[in-house]
Design brief:
Structural class of chain B: mainly alpha
Largest sheet of chain A: 4 strands, antiparallel
Radius of gyration of chain B: 20 Å
Order of helices and strands of chain B: HHHHEHEHEHEEHHHHHHHHHH
Number of strands of chain B: 5
Helix content of chain B: 40-55%
Shape of chain B: globular
Largest interface: A-B, 37 and 43 residues
Oligomer: heterodimer
Strand order of the largest sheet of chain A: 1-2-3-4
Number of strands of chain A: 6
Number of helices of chain B: 17
Number of domains of chain B: 1
Chain lengths: 179, 348
């Protein structure tokens, strides 16, 4: 087995640069580096949580099943890992097994359709939550520092601001900034 | 046009009815009308609460999806903001400054889920005597915290600072301790703050509904109604408004306050404000001194600054009675213009 294959076989969840909010039915994750939010359904969240870099995929599936009280097959765990990898929530992406009865994407999707709780949904429009109550970064930075409104900065658009930032006075500067 | 706005505002009120409760009542929920008010819910920060209500009413996934996205963003923003609240208190404490937290986290923490009630900045209130020390503490950290430092106690300045601190409550936030206003002061502050801003955010009225439905057994109504009589009456009207528009249960409110009859203009004025898709709230507008440099945009700038009946009433210290509001709105405009003329430096 190659080094990469070994890494893939024992997936490790990414920890740095993420804000995680675990809720009863889902886990929300904000990627501070890519400014993207993800919503992990129950099983996907349990799979992600079990990725400690020591467990095999089979062990990850078993741990997720134990945690959720739902049957989690190895196929389901692979599918969740694939989705988590695409969302950049693993230290290294998973490629999936090269051969076997469930290697085709169609097979995976068919199996996933029968199992709930595996979705890893990206929330691509944070402006939906902040439209009109946020100030564009360019507009904020054009204001002199006595006019900083303290309003949330928009995280999308031509010049997106960091998530959770507000238009405030910058220490020693003459203009406002999104921080 | 005004009728349309009022109808949209009413639809929005129907969506948010009881939405602050742990188990919102599904009765009367109109999923079909939701898409029309979706942008209004999103821009006013009420989409998370709408999701909570729609979910409990069994709304279908296509209706829930955009609302859930908004909730998720708010929940993550709250997770990022909460440590900053704790950090701000730690900084002030290290510099020997006692502060009180109002609005924001102080009320969001009472909702059934983080993210249902979004908040942007951290509203800290300090006595005037502590202003310099507080500013120096917050600047010294080198970390820009989104603190809105209130010098004095804003709508609560008819109360003694010592009384506000004596009635304050200490709440845990992670490993930190945060001092929030006592329940009577917080209810009054939230009510008056909402009215001062023309009640434009429905979530502010949900705050009042939540607070009056979860009052502590020893809530002191005599203290709540003490102080400036005009402010007290305005705060009582706001509580009554939460009942009229959102179905807040006023069982815990004394009968004499519960029976306050609202002036006829109040409910329509708030509904029109809620239904106004063009509204630009304070804090997101281009500053007036910038607008004056491009006169073509001036009509728009003036239109978005026209005070609604509620904020004009508060701004002009007028009573909440049945007299027409237009004189107060004109008076408020004049007052703001004079204040701006006095404060603005000459144009370059």
């Amino acid at each position: 087995m190659s080094t990469r294959a070994k890494e893939v076989a024992r997936p490790r969840k990414r920890r740095d640069g993420l804000v995680v909010e675990a809720l009863p039915e889902e886990t929300l994750v904000y990627d501070l580096e890519r400014h993207k939010a993800h919503c992990l359904a129950e099983v996907a969240a349990a799979v992600w949580d079990a990725c400690d870099g020591r467990r095999t995929v089979a062990a990850v599936a078993a741990r997720a099943a134990e945690k959720t009280g739902r049957p989690v097959t190895e196929e389901a765990a692979w599918l969740a890992l694939r989705r988590l990898g695409r969302a950049r929530l693993l230290e290294a992406p998973v490629a999936g097994p090269r051969a076997g009865p469930f290697t085709s994407r169609r097979d995976w999707l068919k199996k996933a359709a029968m199992l709930g709780g595996l979705s890893v949904a990206s929330i691509t429009a944070p402006t939906a939550a902040e439209a009109a109550t946020c100030i564009g970064r360019t507009a904020c930075e054009a204001l002199v520092n006595v006019d900083c409104p303290g309003a949330p900065c928009c995280t999308t658009g031509a010049n997106p601001a960091p998530a959770g930032s507000t238009c405030i006075k910058q220490g020693g500067g003459s203009r406002c900034t999104c921080r | 046009m005004g009728r349309n706005r009022e109808a949209r505002g009413r639809q929005l009120a129907r969506v948010l009815r009881g939405a602050w409760r742990a188990r919102p009542d599904a009765g009367g929920f109109d999923g079909a009308g939701l898409p029309e008010v979706l942008p209004l819910l999103q821009r006013s920060g009420s989409a998370g609460l709408a999701w909570w209500r729609a979910r409990s009413a069994g709304a279908p996934p296509p209706v829930l999806a955009p609302l859930h996205d908004a909730f998720a963003i708010h929940a993550l923003a709250a997770a990022m903001r909460a440590p900053q609240v704790a950090a701000a208190f730690a900084l002030l404490r290290d510099h020997g400054v006692d502060a009180l937290l109002g609005k924001g986290w102080a009320v969001a923490r009472l909702y059934p889920r983080a993210g249902l009630r979004p908040y942007g900045d951290i509203d800290l209130y300090v006595p005037r005597t502590d202003e310099a020390a507080a500013r120096s503490a917050l600047d010294a950290s080198g970390v820009a915290l989104p603190v809105d430092l209130h010098v004095g106690f804003a709508e609560l300045d008819d109360r003694a600072s010592a009384e506000l601190f004596a009635r304050a409550a200490v709440k845990r936030l992670g490993d930190a301790e945060v001092r929030v206003f006592g329940p009577e002061d917080h209810l009054r502050l939230l009510a008056l703050h909402m009215l001062r801003h023309g009640a434009w955010r429905p979530v502010w009225l949900c705050d009042l509904a939540l607070l009056v439905e979860t009052l502590p057994p020893d809530f002191d109504w005599a203290y709540f109604t003490s102080g400036d009589a005009l402010r007290t009456d305005a705060a009582v009207c706001a509580i009554r408004l939460a009942h009229e528009l959102l179905g807040a249960d006023l069982e815990g409110v004394p009968g004499s306050l519960r029976e306050r009859v609202l002036p006829g203009w109040l409910v329509p004025a708030v509904l029109r404000q809620w239904g106004d898709g063009e509204f630009e709230p304070h804090g997101t507008r281009v500053p007036m001194r910038t607008e004056l440099r491009r006169p073509r945009g001036l009509p728009h700038a003036l239109r978005v600054r026209w005070p609604n009946a509620v904020e004009a009433t508060i701004g002009q210290r007028a009573p909440f009675n049945d007299l027409p509001r237009l004189p107060f709105q004109l008076g408020e405009c004049l007052f703001r213009t004079l204040r701006f003329a006095r404060s603005a430096p000459p144009l370059a």
